[in-house]
Every structure is written in C-alpha cells, then in structure tokens.
Amino acid sequence: MDVREYIEANASGFFTALKDWLAIPSISGDPARRGDVRRSAEWLQAHLRETGFPLVEIWETGTQDAPGLPAVFAEWPAADPDAPTVVVYGHHDVQPVEPLDEWETAPFDPIEQGDRIIGRGASDDKGQVFFHTLGLKANLAASGATAPPVTIKMLVEGEEESGSPHFPQLLRDRRDRLACDAIVISDTTMWAADVPSLCTGMRGLTEAEVSLHGPSIDLHSGSFGGAVPNPLHAMASLLAGLHDEQNRVTLKGFYDGVVELTDEERELFARLPFDEAAWLETAGGSRAAFGEEGFTTLERVWARPTAEVNGMWGGHTGPGGKTIVPREAHAKVSFRLVAGQDPRAVQEAFAAYVDEHTPPGVEARVRFPSTGVRPCFSPIDSVGVRAARRAMERAFGTEVLFTREGGSGPEADLADILEAPLVFIAVGLDEDQIHAPNEKVEKPLLLKGAEAAAYLWDEFARGQESS
Amino acid sequence: MDVREYIEANASGFFTALKDWLAIPSISGDPARRGDVRRSAEWLQAHLRETGFPLVEIWETGTQDAPGLPAVFAEWPAADPDAPTVVVYGHHDVQPVEPLDEWETAPFDPIEQGDRIIGRGASDDKGQVFFHTLGLKANLAASGATAPPVTIKMLVEGEEESGSPHFPQLLRDRRDRLACDAIVISDTTMWAADVPSLCTGMRGLTEAEVSLHGPSIDLHSGSFGGAVPNPLHAMASLLAGLHDEQNRVTLKGFYDGVVELTDEERELFARLPFDEAAWLETAGGSRAAFGEEGFTTLERVWARPTAEVNGMWGGHTGPGGKTIVPREAHAKVSFRLVAGQDPRAVQEAFAAYVDEHTPPGVEARVRFPSTGVRPCFSPIDSVGVRAARRAMERAFGTEVLFTREGGSGPEADLADILEAPLVFIAVGLDEDQIHAPNEKVEKPLLLKGAEAAAYLWDEFARGQESS
After folding, report:
1. Could you tell me which of A63, A106, A286, A218 has the C-alpha nearest to residue B99?
2. Which domains does chain A have, with CATH numbers?
3. Residue B464 pLDDT exceeds 70
4. Is the ipTM of this structure higher than 0.90?
5. CB contact under 8 A, A288 and B360
6. Where is the Peptidase M20 dimerisation domain (chains A, B) (predicted)?
7. Searching chain A, which residue's CA lies closest to the CA of residue B208?
C-alpha cells in the first residue's frame, strides 16, 4: 500500500476524528475557556498515543501563581540514531468567534459540507496540525517500518491566538528536549488550491495603546472651544503623521536594517497568478489597493513593514450631538515587522514619536501590552525548504512556488531559541475565513497536506545525507 | 416693599419651586425623554399661570408626522397700550447627563448645598428662565400695579439643546403673536460673581457627522495590512487637516465675510480682569491655552470661528488587542461661527473638504443633523443694551462691563425673524459646569438676576421714551 492509497483508505476516519477535536471550544483568549483549552490538549495527547508516538506529554506553561495554558509534546525516535531530528510546530487553541450572529453554522458544531469542513479551528490550526498524524501513519504503512526515517518531535501549543505569552519561556526551559535540525511549521497558507506553494517568512508584530489626556472633564465647546487643546485633534494629528506621502512609516529608524527583497524573490513573487481584483474581493470588497509606494500588493503584504491603526475612540460617540471638547482620546496601533526589525526598537521609536508629537497641554500615555512577535524568514535555497518543496511537488504533482505570510506567529522564537532553520509547509487558503465567522478548510487539501507530510520525512533524511 | 425686600422675602419659596422643575429630566436629545420634556413644559405653564400671566399656552412644534417638542408661551400686557413689548427667551430642555458616574449627586434629584443648587439645568437654562418670574412679581409688588410697565411675552422652548430644529418655523408661524420691540435673552453667563457684565453676541454653530467606509468586513491586519486603505488612517488625516499650522480652519472660504473685532472691542475685552491660569483651571484644569494665532484667549472663545472634533470612533475599542484593518470610522465635528458666517455655506465647504480628502477605496458619507445655528451680535450702544446695563448696575451696585458668549443658541433666528434687537441679561457663570457633570447655579446670583429683571422693565419703558 503506497502513501496515497493509505491516505484514501483512512480519510473518512481522519475527518471524523478531526471534527471531534474541533468541537472543543479551545479559545485561549477567553478566560472562561481555560478548561476547554485543557480538554483540547488532552484530546490531542490521547490521539497522538493512538497514532503510535511512544512518548506523549502535556507541558504546562507559566508559573504556579500565573499559570498559562498547556502545550502538547510528542516524540517518535527514528530507528537510525544518526537520522536528523525535526520539530513539528502547530497550535491547538483557536480565535474567538464573535460576531456570533454572522456564523451560518455553530462554530463548535463542525460539519462536513461538500468538500469542506466548517468550524472554528478547521484551518487555523487544528486541521493543519492533524494532517501530520495521517501523514506519518501513511509514511510507516508505505515503508513497512516501525519508526519514522527521522526523529519527529511534535510541539502543539495552546496560547498562539493570545500572542504566545509563555511560549518563549517554555522553549528555553525545554531546549534540550526540543533539540533538532529543523523546525516544520504548519500554520500558514498556500497560494491557491491549484497553485501549491511554500511560505518562506512571516511578519513580526508589536502592538501599542496610546491615550491622550486634556482637560479633566469634557468641556462645553461654546465656552472653551478654540482656546484649549482638544485631545481628539491631537490624536488625529498623531495618527495621521504615522505615514508620509509615500505611505512609508515615519517612526525614526523604522526601516533601519530591514532585509530588502532581492530581485530574484520579487521575480518569483511576480510569477504567481495574482488577480488583484479578485484579491480585493477577498479583502472585504475593498475598492482599491493602497500602500507603500514602489511595491506591489504582494510585496506590501508579505515583505514590507506597516503601521496600522486598529481602533480609536474618544468624546461623544452615542446618538445625537454633544458639542464638547472631550477630555481624552484613545487609539490601538499595531506594527507588522519584517526580517531585520526588532519589536522592542519599534516600541521605543513609537514612544519617542508620541512624546515628540504631543502638543503642549495634552498628556500622553503609551502602553505596550506585550514584548511583541519577531519576524522570521527562511532562505529558499536552504536544505529544509528544498526538501519540503520536493515533498509538496510529489503530493500535488505540479511545480511548487514560493510565498510569504503577512501574519505573525511565535515562529521566530522557535528558530532563535532552538537554533534551527524553519520550514513552512501548509495547505490553508487565504479564503478559509480564519479569525472570522464561518472558518472552513478544504478536505482534499488536508489530504494533500497529509501526503506531503508523509513524503517529507524521506526527503528530509535524503536531504541531510546529501548536504 | 421694594424690589429687593420682596425678593428676599420670597427667595426660599422660589428655590423650592425651581428644584421641583429641575427634577424633571427634560433631555431633548434623548428620544426616550420626550414625555419628560412635555411634563417640563406643563410644569412651567402651571407656574406662569400662578405667577399671574393672564395668558399661558403650550405651543407644539414640528408637524403631525414629525412632531417636535413643546415650547411655552405666556403674555402679560402692559396697562399702557403704547408701552413697548419685550419677548423674554429661554429654554426648558436640558443637556444629557453622561458620564453619569461622575455626578456627585443625582442629576435630577436637585439639592441646595450652601449657596448653590446642584442639578442638570440649574444654570442652563431653567434657573435663568425662572428668575424672571420672581423679578416680575417683585416689580409689581414694588410699584403696586396690576400689570407690568411693558408688555411681556415669555417664550421658553424645549429643543435648544438639540439645536432648535423647529424653532425658526415656530417663530415664522407665530410672528404676529411675537411682535415686539426687543428680545431679552437669559441663557448666557456674566464675567464673574463680583464682575457683572452683559453679553453682546453669541457664536453660531453647525454640526456634522462623517463616516468613512472601507472593506465590508474587518480584515486581518496580517493578511491585508499595508495593502488596502484603512478608514481610521483616512479619518485621522481628514480631521488632522482641518487646522493649519496657525490653528486656522482650512475649509475653503471659511473666513470670508467674518466681522472682525474692532480696536475698541478688543480694548474693552482687555479691560476685563482675565486671569488665564484661573481660566485654565475652570477649563477642567487644561494645562495650556491653545488656538488661532494672533488672538487672545477671550477673543478666540468669543469672536473667532472654530472647528472642533466632538467625538470619533472606529475599529476595536474594547479590552485587549485585535489586529484588524477596520471596516469603518466615524466622527462628529462641530463649527462655531461668528457674525458674517452662514452655517449652510460652512456645511457646503465641509462636504467639499471631505470629498476632496477621502482617498481612493474609501467611501465618505457626511450628514448634517440640522441646518445649524446662526451667530448673533448686539452693538453696545443700542437702546436695549443700555437699559439692561442700567438694570444690572442697580441690582449689583457696581459698573457693568461687556463680554460675548462662545456658545450658541437660536438667538439669531429670533432677531432675524422677529426683526427686533437682542439684549442678553444673565447671571450664569462659566464655572457652572453646564453640559458637564455636577451642573450648579449660585443662589445669590439668581436673586440678583431677579432683581435686575425687576428693574429692567422700568428701564425699558424709560429708554424707549427717551429714544
């Protein structure tokens, strides 16, 4: 029985089990769901044992006083003690589901509808973690071996959708157990169902909250308007000044050290069949592309740093008019970062920018809810990326191109702390509605993911030998 | 019994009745309070009858399909048919009370605390309407007459805090009934408790709501950030661009036709004992004066037009982070206008400004909740202003100076439609916290107001004779 036959024979049971897991509402951002995140970890633990992993553990995170949410670790050593070791990373927690009334089915009552499974976590990230179990069993069924050709260590965390606050510490604490030659990430997307691709980088992220305080009370704009500073005016100017006329971010030193795109990468990106009108349709029917001058839309999203105002508020926001000079204004701002940028340096630059642009009579407070997420980047000619490309090409039977991911994850910490290169292999699609109502995954792509995962371990073993 | 003795003897009952009226939450801006606004009108109707007005009516506003809120009209003819006629204008509706948790007492459970009455409407405007009833009775008690020396027509509207949408039509419909020689306005403030003054003008007002619409759904800022327009960025730029570096409003033609201050008026303003540090303290502890270059703080507030952002909101405003490109942004903006400016022209200029400054891919909608309020202005050497100055000087026993009011009211419509000059006579203070939590009025000043009102009718009759 070859890999593909094994996968086809076991597809139905695979989907049934996945739906079982998706029914657990493991929302890490909701304190009321802590028990569900734990149930999700226990479910996965049981399933990885059933898959055949000789060692499966639940790893607690955080401290006794401030406990985090559990990760799952599993290890299956190769028969050959000299075979390479690979860590497979994913996460078992999911995004919140609001606005609930826009879901056409219950988010935690997953259903199969035609070629799809619909439910929170179907694509991000339970479905993509799960194809590795089917892929590994297919690899073993095809080879007849009782152990994989490389040592496989699965690490599936439970706080990714909450910014992985305890993950770096977990990696540091468990560095010896996680020693590896490469890290396989299955938490991204590929270009399209019929254009398979590999991701080679993700943007970093840092978030800030800024509040501007003026008078201690809202003032009558008739009695005081035009003669005291208005915090909303100050906030508008502050936010408007974050971009220049070329739509470049104006923070001092923001672009220092940015790893620029090479001509080869720009050419490879340009080979992708990108339909901007269709992309705008997926962007909530956005009416026009818009961004940093001198770059294409794909380059802007994948390889350029940005500043984005995520929310702002202040003054009278209810019905009717209220002619006031409001006492305060607030905004939430986030920055997407690319290779060569450091979240802490960007935080410092933003604090300095706010300080410099706050007018007399207004007091600014800036808060950074976390230290941020570092960007990551994998050269396309590395051993691991080459092995993954061959595995994907065997599974899909066609040429595999390269992309990057505009989103952010804890991947940079993995690479830095475990000191190993990253390899992104995934079958999610941009239209999977992750982080939105009606999240779904394409069943045929999950099976292709399992098939690529099955080939990957042989390609890895071969690649390491030849390198 | 002279005027002062009568007022002292009846002060306690006057305050008790006022508190009764203040307990009615006549918030015209809140659709749920329509019944309370009507109750307030009925309360005043009953009280004006009790005062002795031979004719008191409730005047409905709006249309049958779109009813407005009721005004109260009362008329007491002079004994002498050749005596002048004066309309006394005020309003019985009040501002909203949010933020409720900053009130130290319940806004509609008025209390006397030392020299103060605390409650919504105590100063703006129920207290100031009400002193006329005590003043008129004192005038009659002192003269022993059964009718006032001038014909008095009280007109107390119920939609002032909502921009008086139906008031001009009411004035046009009732122009014959409201025929008069002068219009007395009691809805402003004087310089200070120990520096009585008369107001000679009010700024106009026009309000706008603008919303900017981008994608049809909030977008993941990782997948789309930096490549589609962000409505919050567009809003920040739009609002930031409303002022130039001299803090002048940038709308095209905004300053065309503005009646500039004369050197004499600037000199008179400068004679007022203005303590900017103390003023900033009343401005909610504002830390610095700030406004149009080339003008003093008093000039900015009283005689210069402004643009003020009253509220703005969009995107994620709750706790925690949400890295989105939000679908829309909103703002409420208001403009204070001075003599020579037309609200409609400013609305047109603002709509054109928004149109011109909305980037491609963002759709703007601008709404003007009303046609606005026109500015008004009374020369200091007019007959009415001179009579009012004498009445105030008799009540306070000291020189009375001149100010203007930065706020807005339907006074310009009164002057234009009734074709009569305006006279502002009032005893409110800037620190009365009108439009803010903990609104209050000074009881001794209300009694001085009643006294000045009592003298005013004699001064008016005398002034008209000599003119």
Report:
1. A218
2. 3-202+376-466 (3.40.630.10), 204-258+305-367 (3.30.70.360)
3. no
4. no
5. yes
6. 201-361
7. A321
